[in-house]
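Is this the right way to post structure tokens for a design question? Let me know if I should format differently. Anyway, here goes:
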């Protein structure tokens, strides 16, 4: 008999209980922060009509869309009519167009759901992964960007990413720099895709890719010189004046360029507003930041950690909803990558100790087979007191039951034998200290709760 493989498909994973607890902790923090900034929850289907997704992510993105073949009598055609969700932004744009009359003037939503990409799996990169998005629809005000940068900074701080930096750039500024570098407008999209790989393949790799795509020989190096000469991440501008230093050099680079001047003013307005928020010390202007998705129209942002890379990002996309609605609707948002965050937090041991603890506060032992009902009643009383309770299902020796509880990271064990029942007490054993205490049965839940010292659960 052939044995079937038990491994999940490449680029996907099974999540065991400890994995889930960590994920719930992180998404709980993210959800709390998002809601504190006024964002409301939204969910959309796992798959969309294929025409909804195609053409929204550029040529590179189109290649990574998981297509779903037609079914039934159309199966033999080999054609696709549906596709798995590639991100959460395009489905949001469809929702806004569909429910425009039912949504508030300024619609702020968050969405935490899985997406799928037919990418090559690698460390921290999967084919199925969760995104944690916030988007604000309906306003062109830089207040939107400032608050989203602050929300991103707040999440990173709550999750102990003390060294995270949020890079900020502007898509129209890149358009101006591309123009100044002598790159034809028809090649702008390809230039952005190549530039977006700068941190992965380096300057020489980007120049080679631009050359292979047919760029003028001097154009690629000229563009990289323009972004590098004013990029804090390339030259270390903090000692020279930080963001003001970057702005000064950018003003010289795009002097006389109307598009570039407007983009720089947008960035100045955002930085002015950010100064009074949680993001004030984390935002750095980064003219080399491209973000390859083709729908961005204004400010773009990315949270990074040195030696790790991106934890998430986003930007303004005032034209995307118009593809569905027939008129432009202002929109801006960002997405945090849950999988990368979890990997890095585990490697750095950034989780609070209780997150990795067991899912049970106390184990009720089974004295013998005749006392099962007593054990279940005790468990019910303890649960009514707010505890997470497991009942040992078999009449084993107490030593085996203690060992089982310890293996499950359960802190306390409840023992109710004949003597305890007669006296109206319960013996509570603390497996951390080995101490055993006789407690009045009606006070047992409060006794354990007081000693758990557990942080609030998310």
């Amino acid at each position: 008999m052939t044995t079937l493989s038990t491994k999940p498909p490449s680029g996907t994973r099974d999540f065991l209980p400890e994995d889930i607890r960590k994920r719930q902790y992180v998404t709980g923090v993210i959800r709390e922060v998002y809601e504190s900034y006024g964002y409301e929850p939204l969910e959309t289907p796992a798959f969309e009509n294929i025409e909804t997704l195609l053409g929204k992510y550029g040529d590179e993105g189109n290649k990574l869309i998981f297509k779903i073949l037609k079914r039934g009598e159309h199966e033999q055609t080999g054609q696709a009519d549906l596709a798995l969700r590639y991100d959460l932004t395009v489905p949001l744009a469809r929702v806004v167009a569909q429910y425009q009359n039912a949504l508030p003037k300024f619609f702020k939503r968050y969405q935490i759901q899985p997406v799928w990409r037919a990418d090559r799996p690698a460390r921290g990169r999967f084919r199925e992964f969760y995104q944690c998005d916030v988007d604000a629809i309906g306003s062109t005000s830089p207040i939107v960007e400032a608050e989203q940068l602050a929300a991103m900074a707040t999440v990173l701080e709550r999750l102990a990413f003390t060294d995270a930096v949020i890079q900020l750039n502007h898509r129209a500024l890149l358009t101006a720099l591309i123009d100044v570098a002598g790159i034809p407008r028809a090649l702008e999209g390809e230039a952005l895709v190549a530039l977006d790989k700068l941190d992965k393949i380096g300057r020489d790799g980007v120049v080679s890719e631009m050359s292979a795509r047919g760029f003028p020989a001097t154009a690629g190096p000229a563009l990289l010189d323009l972004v590098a000469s004013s990029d804090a991440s390339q030259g270390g501008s903090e000692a020279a004046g930080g963001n003001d230093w970057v702005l000064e050099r950018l003003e010289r680079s795009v002097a006389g360029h109307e598009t570039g001047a407007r983009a720089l003013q947008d960035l100045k307005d955002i930085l002015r507003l950010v100064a009074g928020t949680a993001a004030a010390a984390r935002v750095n202007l980064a003219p080399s930041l491209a973000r390859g998705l083709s729908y961005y129209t204004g400010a773009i942002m990315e949270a990074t950690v040195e030696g790790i890379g991106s934890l998430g990002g986003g930007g303004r996309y005032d034209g995307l909803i118009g593809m569905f609605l027939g008129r432009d609707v202002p929109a801006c948002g960002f997405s945090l990558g849950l999988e990368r965050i979890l990997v890095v937090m585990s490697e750095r041991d950034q989780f609070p100790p209780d997150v990795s603890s067991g899912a049970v506060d106390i184990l009720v032992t089974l004295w013998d087979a005749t006392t099962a009902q007593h054990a279940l009643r005790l468990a019910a009383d303890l649960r009514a007191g707010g505890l997470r309770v497991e009942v040992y299902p078999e009449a084993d020796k107490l030593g085996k039951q203690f060992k089982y509880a310890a293996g499950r990271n359960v802190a306390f064990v409840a023992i109710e034998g004949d003597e305890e029942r007669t006296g109206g007490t319960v013996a509570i054993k603390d497996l951390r200290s080995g101490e055993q205490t006789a407690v009045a049965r009606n006070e047992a839940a409060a006794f354990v709760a007081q000693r758990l010292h557990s942080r609030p659960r998310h």
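Format looks fine. Someone answered above. Worth noting: Residues 17-36 form the longest helix (20 residues). Residues 234-240, 454-458 have pLDDT under 50 and may be disordered.
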